[in-house]
Design a protein that fits this description.
alpha+beta; Jelly Rolls; Arc Repressor Mutant, subunit A; 2 domains; 6-stranded antiparallel sheet
Length: 294
Amino acid sequence: MNLPPHCEASAFYTPDSKVKGFKVLEITGPAYPALSYNRRDFYKIVLGTGNMHIYYGDQTFDITGTFLFFANPYIPYSSEHRSPEQKGFACLFTKDFIGSRDRTERLLNSPLFRFDGTPVIPVSSEQAAFIEVLYRQMLSVYSGEYDEKDEMLRSCIDLIMHEALRILPQNGAKQRNAASRITYLFMDLLEKQFPIEVATDPLKLRTAQDFADQLAVHVNYLNRSVKEVTGKPISVHIAERITAEAKALLQHTNWSIGDIGYSLGFEYPSYFNNYFKRVTGASPNSFRKSLGKV
């Protein structure tokens, strides 16, 4: 289900955004033309009713009726409407909005968002009515002045996911192709290395070859599969995850720059400094100072 262009990622970054990293809206009216087939930087859950094709990674879903759609930002997707009208609800959120590491891990490991999971789930009228109540609750909270609105919105997301998981066994899981399966295994291996809790135990897997050796496949096959499914090569996934962990360690620990670099697999502090500055535009020390940490 396509949203008006102004309701996509830009909604998170406008000055008047009600909740940072989150947007919820009711979708009514004409169906918009298909958006470009690419990656976003946010998760999306849609409760929709319509007649359409959903293109998700290497899969095509033929939709007639009411459904839930769970979009992972690492997998390119788009939709093609066969009817002039669309209706439903959507919530969009970033991984940062989800908050805690435990919640983020549940999200990443959920069969609703995983590479080998089931992103489209048909729902009955009774099931849709229950989920619609949750969306309308989110709309009310999102526009209100409740101090704990972020947490309540996260709770609504959790409830929608739990309802989807309750429905899921009745529909079964579709087998994914080899590229999707190997991509999931790569992403799972990458994520399992984090969070880093001991500075003296550096990352073991840091290159495409490291992951290929671990998975017992040729590095070219692995890189081709990951890029086909996610739109990005392995090196970019690794760099993004290492950078995110570096920022977290700079913000939440008192480890020295050298210790942080070593824990991330950089043999010398200068290597880590150069890498971090190249990727973020700031040195590790400058980044830490910008957070008010000495």
